[in-house]
Amino acid sequence: MLALASWVVALALGQASDPYVRSRVVAGDSSSQALFWNQPRIDWQQSSLGNPNMNPHTEFDAVREAFKSWQTLFTRCGNLDFAEGPLVDARKVGFTRDGDNQNLVLFRMTRCKSFVDASDACWKAGTCANLYDCWDDEDGTLAVTLTTYDERSGIIRDSDISFNAATYTFTTGSGAPCVLVPGPNCASTDVQNTATHEIGHLVGLDHTRAAGSIMNRSSSPGELSKRVIDSGSSEFVCVTYPKGGMSQSSPHPVVDLELGPKAGCAAAGGGFSALALLGLGVLARSRRRGVR
Ligand SMILES: [Zn+2]
Predict the structure, then answer these.
(1) What's the gap in Å between 282 CA and the centre of ligand 1?
(2) What is the pLDDT of residue 16?
(3) What separation in Å is there between the alpha carbon of 124 and the centre of ligand 1?
(4) For the residues of the chain, what is the DSSP string, one character each?
(5) What's the mean pLDDT when you consider all of the chain?
(6) 74 Cα: distance to centroid of ligand 1 (angstroms)
(7) pLDDT at 264 over 50
(8) What is the mean pLDDT of residues 244-270?
(9) What does the domain layout of the chain look like in residue ranges?
(10) Distance from Cα 122 to the centre of ligand 1, integer Å
(11) Ligand 1 centroid to 101 CA: how many Å?
């Protein structure tokens, strides 16, 4: 299987093992502002193409199930609602000021490296994915969440999730790993498992090494455990987005010129340890883009 073939032993900077780690304007620096939404509703949409490799197209509902898990949690102790809009033809991720922005979920089907010339200016500009509708990240990465936020306040403006269907075989079955027991219900790279992790990034979570967290950066073929949101990530929702209260910035209270002053207090965050992480399997990671 492709997923097995791409198993890598990756050496990465260690992640804090706190129950959860908030994403920061400066990644890993807990003295910099944490990223968060300060609006009551996040509208999101799926690309109408879905994953053309899948038939029937169970990926749409699998993504919805992942959002539903987060919604259940936010309904219990948070202050955000997720609302899915209609399928859209849009294929561009990122944020355009005064543009038509969606919080988009899409599958990229081809690797940019396979047909975009190395001298193409899009590589340096970071625009290849949108320009050619292709996967421009590492082959070993399952999915990427691109979050655009205000650099001063950490307030998130837009977040898009891209799946790497150029390299990985996505499935929605709940059976044994396909590498062990191939069959119609076997699990290769599970859509819901992957989406639950990426939505964690969307709401402002970074990776943690905490055992059992959905925000562990590595994933093995056939993994389904990240479909269920762990207690640490749940705590993040309850603390950062308190039910009936204002979303919590950290470490500085937010004064947004457009939105007026917002109260805030420091939430639990994590410094990064210098321990090296030996991660088996593919890496799911997030990207951030600040705007002023
Ligand atoms: Zn990740």
Answers:
(1) 10
(2) 77
(3) 23
(4) -HHHHT--EEEE-----SS-EE-BSSTT-TTSPBPB--SSEEEEEEBTT--TT-SS-THHHHHHHHHHHHHHHHHHH-S-EEEE---B-----S--TTS----EEEEE-SBGGGTS-TT-HHHHHT-HHHHHTSB-S-TTEEEEEEEEEETTT-BEEEEEEEEETTT--EE---SSBTTTS-STT-BSEEHHHHHHHHHHHHTTEE----TT-TT-SEE-TT--GGGS--HHHHHHHHHHS-TTSPPPPSSS--EETTTEE----PPP--PPP---EEEESEEEEEEEEEE-
(5) 85
(6) 20
(7) no
(8) 56
(9) 2-291
(10) 24
(11) 22
